[in-house]
Write a structure and sequence with these properties.
This protein is mainly β and 119 residues long. The chain contains no helices and 11 strands. The strands form 2 sheets. Strands 2, 4, 5, 6, 9, 10 and 11 form a 7-stranded mixed beta sheet that branches. The protein has a 4-stranded antiparallel beta sheet with strand order 1-3-8-7, with no helix packed on it.
Length: 119
Amino acid sequence: QVQLVESGGGLVQAGGSLRLSCAASGRTLSSYPAGWFRQAPGKEREFVAAISRSGDSTTYLDSRKGRFTISRDNAKNMVYLQMNILKPEDTAVYYCAAKDAWSARYDYWGQGTQVTVSS
């Protein structure tokens, strides 16, 4: 089983950038497809981006594509989310997640990191 810990959240002005990091332990992260999700106050958790085990395939929710970039460094057991041109509506708790290669759902979650974008 893999454990995930996010970091890198904080307060940023609209138009700014943040890079979220997700550190994995317990198992080798390269065994798991990974993703980022977010949950804004009063809203359901939503998908942001996903990346394959090798990192050669990525998927984004359309509205995030172009501003957000997911990446991974399997040698360091890390997954990243680079967020640019941030908007107040990007304010949310961001979660890193991983799933077993054969699973249809994400089974492993971090505790989340708060991102607040001021206007």
